[in-house]
Amino acid sequence: MTDDRDATLTPMEFDEISVDAYMRTDVDTVGPEAWVTDVVDRLTAGARYTGLPVVDGDDHLLGFVGAIDLLEVYGDVHVHEVMTRELIVVGPEMSVKDAARVIFRTGHQFLPVVDEDDRLLGMFSNGDAVRSQIERTTPSKVESTRELLERTHDVEVPVSERDVTVSELVPTQRSVYADELEGRRYELENGLAEPLIVVDYGYETLLVDGHHRALAAARAGIDRMHAHVLTVSPDDVPDLGLREMARLGGLRSLDDVEVDDYVRHPLIRKTDPDAHDAA
Questions:
Q1: Distance between CA atoms of 58 and 171, rounded to whole angstroms?
Q2: How far apart are CA 159 and CA 272, in angstroms?
Q3: N or C: which end of the chain has fewer CB within 10 A?
Q4: Is 16 helix (H, G, I), strand (E, B) or coil?
Q5: Distance CA 51, CA 109 (A)
Q6: Which residue in 160, 144, 177 sits closest to 7, CA to CA?
Q7: Pfam family of this protein, just one (predicted)?
Q8: How much is the average pLDDT of 130-136?
Q9: Distance in angstroms (rounded) separating the CA atoms of residues 196 and 172
Q10: Distance CA 258, CA 268 (A)
């Protein structure tokens, strides 16, 4: 994404987005004459797709070699001798929605994306499908927030996209849940985190949506996050409700946000499986 893009995509537009908008193009590949020992070394080092697409010198997709193809394979064996040749592939113009259906119905975790000549263009994974849905829901949240601000304060609120500094965010939510923080940490580590929604209000940046994500980022030492930014001038709106909410709550930074670990709530307990054993 580029900065300052207008965040007004409708759900219908997202339905029409194609696979090439979300596929990964930085895909590790292997040639058919490579030794399986090389594949084992690369898989052990942590290949993204638990295997490697097999391509020729012109990037034509010939097959795929994964861990299951290497079971009980010993000695000097070339990749083309063990690779899976019959693959389910998709074209770059297929809609994200249809590709996600293919992944769900076939049980595959990813799909190679090829052109009309079977040249490998990228890989589309179940993680990419999730990422597309995350980005699909965010604009509707942005629009709802913008409409609320414009209706409440009778002012036009422009929207842009850019990175914001996490440590400078002013929260508008008093508490977050500990278990959700763990989930947001996983999303951050795997590139699945939804952008924040913030209000640029003069010298302050108020956090509207994404308190769990922002606090998880702060704890992970991440100080820059992508955000949808709604801009409101203090000259136009001297009494911004969100700013008053933060002030009344004593919220000046993410350090003021409480973490609610309801699993440790004093009224929650575990039963004793031996307490009512028959005599």
A1: 52
A2: 54
A3: C
A4: coil
A5: 11
A6: 160
A7: CBS
A8: 65
A9: 13
A10: 19
Class of domain 155-262: alpha beta
Which residue pairs, CB below 8 angstroms and at least 24 apart, start in 238-241? 240/153, 240/199, 240/201, 240/206, 241/152
Query: What global pTM score does this model have?
Result: 0.54
Instruction: Report how far Cα 190 is from the mean position of its chain's Cα atoms.
Output: 7
CA dist., res. 180 & res. 213, Å (int) = 9
Please state, rounded to an integer, the average pLDDT across all residues of the chain.
82
Contact 170, 246 (CB under 8 A): yes
Strands 175-177 and 258-260: parallel
What are the residue boundaries of the structural domains of the chain, listed by start?
11-128, 155-262
84 residue type, one letter? T
CATH number of 11-128: 3.10.580.10
CB contact at 8 A, 129 and 53 = no
**Cβ-contact 81, 1 below 8 angstroms:** no
Confidence of residue 277 (pLDDT cuts 50, 70, 90): low
Residues sharing a CB contact under 8 Å with residue 267, sequence separation 6 or more, in sequence order? none
Q: How long, in residues, is the chain?
A: 279
- For 70, 141, 153, 191, 198, the CA distances from 229, given in Å and listed in that order, are 49, 12, 17, 20, 5
Phi-psi region for residue 160, left (φ > 0), alpha (ψ -120 to 50) or beta? Answer: beta
